[in-house]
Amino acid sequence: MKRVFTTNLLLLLLLNILIKPFWIFGIDRSVQNLLGAGEYGMFYTLFNFSLLLNILLDLGITNFNNREISRYPQLIGKYFSNIVGIKIFLALGYALITILMALSLGYNNRQISLLLLLVFNQFLSSLILYLRSNLNGLHFFKLDSVLSVLDKTLMILICSVLLWSNIFRYDFTIEYFVLAQTISYVATAIIAFIIVIGKTGSISFKFELPFSLSMLRSSFPYAMLVLLMTVYSRVDSVVIERILPNGDVAAGIYAQAFRLIDAANMFPFLFASLLLPIFSRMIKNSTKISSFVGFSLVLLLVPVVSFSIPTFAFRGHIMDILYHEHAVYSSDILGVLMGSFIFIAMGYVFGTLLTAKGELKTLNYISFAAVVLGISVQLFLVKRFGILGAAYGNLITNGFVASLSIWFSIKLFQFNLAKNFAIRFISFAITSIAITALLCYIDDKSSINYIIALLLSFISAFIFKLINYKELISFFSKETSLK
């Protein structure tokens, strides 16, 4: 089992590294460059708007199902028949509330039509995640890993044909982009459904209200947490589009910078998925956790800081390479978001630690406060400073969340920060800044200098002995993963 877990983790990471960056920078970026900031900005805002209430499609059901099926695989038929009925009911409620909210905000007919497609896509995405949770619960890890990137793979194939071939003679529109996603999701959902049925046998559909209500009650705290986190992390683009003149264009410029954060965020997200079972097992076994938390934080922050500092310095050159328009403006936004990314990474470690401890109430309080703060600062800063104000609002909100998560973790686990460690980490950060500043001064438009800055920043962490080779090997060993 330990070997299977480690192998699956590496497979999942490899598939995501191969597929998702190409989707983000090969397809998604190309669509924006082709259609322009205004057209893509409309899509980007509506996509984030469809995400705000996305948790209503699930309410923690997928997480509940994964846990229960892994414990009681013989009950998959009972759970499946009830959960499918619940998800259809939730989808109708989600669609109705989302469209009513859009109408109240004054979206026009074209925007509502596009939003309806995005709402349907969100339902399909949620359904795929649920179907995958059955395979994960039954320990068909490799199949789950393949399905995790199948939709993006199909989107890449379809969009590549639409963007770069002459098979279809028409002008590419944002509607075709969304429809390509719809087709990919439908195909993936059908394939996932067939695989689940093939692994479990025939499944009858029977809805039991008491069972369904009990399941929703048990998953409610998790669902509320996801809802609050989604709101404070995605509301910025909606505020930009609704408040600023030429809001679509402004949202598109913001999306140019945020795309790099979305791509980089894949690493801390997958890292946190590894940390959760490890933290949970260590807490359950009453194992002293402080040293492992410190090592995990370093293991995540070193690559994040090594990426953020050079990216901040070379932000203008990066935006010039990636985009055809608005590169200067979006580079300023990227600089601010790099600081936000460091806070996001810190939040992943300590948020995961609090989740493993079962402190969902604490996390919900933090996230609720972040929603209030986030919306308030976004409204104030966007009105006063435009798109750059939204980036600063994102930085303030994520800094607030990370700070509170760290404070509650220290209070709960009684951590002590070693003075020697603090000195070494600060030395590493200063060295990274110095190396990057020198290379940027030599030539701030050199891709080679940017790559050298990334590598030397990372290597300096080993010079200051922030990362121990033995601990690094132990972290990814079978014993650490599931002992």
Detailed description of the structure:
This protein has 2 domains: 1-207, no CATH class; 220-483, no CATH class. The protein is globular. Helix content is 85%, strand content 0%. α6 packs antiparallel against α7 (174-200), α11 (290-313) packs antiparallel against α17 and α12 packs across α13. The protein is mostly helical and 483 residues long. The longest helix is centred in the middle third of the chain and has 35 residues, at 209-243. It has 19 helices and no strands.
Q: Which descriptors apply to this entry?
A:
single chain; about 475 residues; mainly alpha; 2 domains; about 85% helix
Proportion in β-strands: under 5%
Order of helices and strands: HHHHHHHHHHHHHHHHHHH
Helix content: over 70%
Instruction: Compute the average pLDDT.
Output: 84
Question: What's the helix and strand layout?
Answer:
Layout: H1 2-35, H2 37-52, H3 61-71, H4 76-104, H5 109-137, H6 141-164, H7 174-200, H8 209-243, H9 247-264, H10 266-284, H11 290-313, H12 315-322, H13 327-357, H14 360-385, H15 387-413, H16 419-442, H17 447-463, H18 469-475, H19 478-482
Helix pairs in contact: 1-2, 1-6, 1-9, 2-5, 2-8, 2-9, 3-5, 4-5, 5-6, 5-7, 6-7, 8-9, 8-14, 8-15, 9-13, 9-15, 10-13, 11-13, 11-16, 11-17, 12-13, 13-15, 14-15, 16-17
